[in-house]
Amino acid sequence: MHPTRAWRHYASGLGFYANLTLLLCLTISTPGCFFSERSFPIDPSQTARSDTSPNLPARQWLIETHNHLKKLLPSHRNPTLLTGELSDKSDRPINMVARYSLKPDQLQSIFVNFLGLSYSAQATGADMGHQPAPNWPGFIDVWTPINPNLKLAGRLGMARDANGKIISADCIVLLPGLCGGNNVIRQQNLAEALKNSGLHVLAIETRAQGQTAVGYPNVPSTWGICESSDLLIVSDWLTAKPNIKRTGLIGFSWGGTIAMLTAWSEERSGGHPGVAPQIERILPKLPPRRRYQAGIMAFSPVLDLDVLIDKLSTPQGYLTRPAWAGLQRTIKNWKARSGFPKPTGTLDDVIRCKELDYKGTREDQRRFLRFISYKDKPADNKLENIRVPLLIVHAADDPIAPVQTVADLTARVKNPNLATIVLPTGGHIGFAPYARDWFYSLTLSYFDPQKGPKPSSTTQSPAVR
């Protein structure tokens, strides 16, 4: 029996006490448990590179690449869907719940979504606070200057040839997830895989995260408002260095959301309706240029911030909603480290930037960060005019970021620079636990300087869906 079906059969047959044991395992993250962080280093002998046609925009590139790499995905009764398959002939988003026979209200249940929760936990680091990550062989600690009052902490690894000489190559910037840093095993695994493939790597810790929080404790997180501009400055800093050609960007979970905001910020001009005048005034005025031309990947981005805020507004229990409860614990601990007087697991008060403290600030902040409309609140089409390749990778059984939001967003965008792939499982950012060889093959193929996607010069609807 295939492992996917075997575990589903196993989970469905577990008795009450066995399930309780697994839930306790999830709660305490016991080493070796299916619900604890694991290392998934690349196995170069099992990976493949896509042999696509040259100079393809992201959407067409994904079609050719998926045909080449899909053999690396475990067999599953449900399909993998690409960009054009997320909308119908009238360009309306398909019903993902019906397509995958989902029970959205039960994706938090270990009885129903054993695999999604397990894959998520194995890819998510334990809350290590602001402890520095152990040394990574071949990487050095660096500080990237953003403004006179802020530098971002990071790990920089420069690819070398067989003689140990630094080569000329693209540099890929890695972003952690919500309240995360470089002490997550996933960051090191991916950084080493990229570096060993011939790419330079900078694993960055954004405002109020990791060692940046230690060095600059009074600089708050703005959850993407200022961070997206910071990343444009990071790209400029890197490309000014010798031996670095273009830059690319990878983000996980909320880091994926920030990566998408960065793609929008890179093309956005002044006066955009999604940027309130008060916010516009605090953002740096940067010279217009195309950054992150090597491409951007967003794994399991959170597109419905308003819904996430609602979900976390009340305490969640580990026995009923373990993923939400774990997320609340992470947020509460992060708030305690960040000096919140009465830290809770809610998200509605996380932005404490004094320059953004004015009447109506919360709605202005949420509109800036919003990709999906919420009730009567607008969501601007932030991706229609992006100028760099952007690939969203998501899973149908994601217990944190609902897959329907990905279809809702993708169906609105005709820009060939945006591509989306939805896997039947993988949970929240759990793609290495689910299909390690596919995960690394896709990522290395995407950032292949010759065969990877290229920025499209047009934002018109592509010829193929």
Any key phrases for this structure?
alpha/beta, globular, disordered N terminus, Rossmann fold, single chain, 15 helices, 465 residues, 34% helix, 9-stranded mixed sheet
Task: Describe how the helices and strands are arranged.
Blueprint: H1 3-12, H2 16-28, H3 58-69, E1 81-82, H4 96-99, H5 114-123, E2 139-147, E3 150-157, E4 169-175, H6 185-196, E5 200-205, H7 210-215, H8 227-239, E6 244-252, H9 254-267, H10 277-282, E7 295-299, H11 305-311, H12 322-337, H13 361-369, E8 390-395, H14 403-412, E9 418-423, H15 431-446
Parallel strand pairs: 4-5, 4-6, 6-7, 7-8, 8-9
Antiparallel strand pairs: 1-9, 2-3, 3-5
Helix pairs in contact: 5-15, 8-9
Quick structural overview:
With 465 residues, this protein is α/β, with parallel strands linked by helices. It has 15 helices and nine strands.
Written overview of the protein:
The longest helix has 16 residues. The protein contains 15 helices and 9 strands. The chain has one domain: 3-Layer(aba) Sandwich (Rossmann fold), CATH 3.40.50.1820. The N terminus and C terminus are likely disordered. Helix 14 links the parallel strand 8 and strand 9. With 465 residues, it is α/β, with parallel strands linked by helices. It starts with a helix and ends in a 19-residue tail after the last helix.
Q: How much strand content do the residues show?
A: 5-15%
Got a strand count? 9
Order of helices and strands: HHHEHHEEEHEHHEHHEHHHEHEH
Number of distinct helices? 15
CATH superfamily: Alpha/Beta hydrolase fold, catalytic domain
What's the pLDDT, averaged over the residues? 89
Structural class: alpha/beta
Rg, alpha carbons: 21 Å
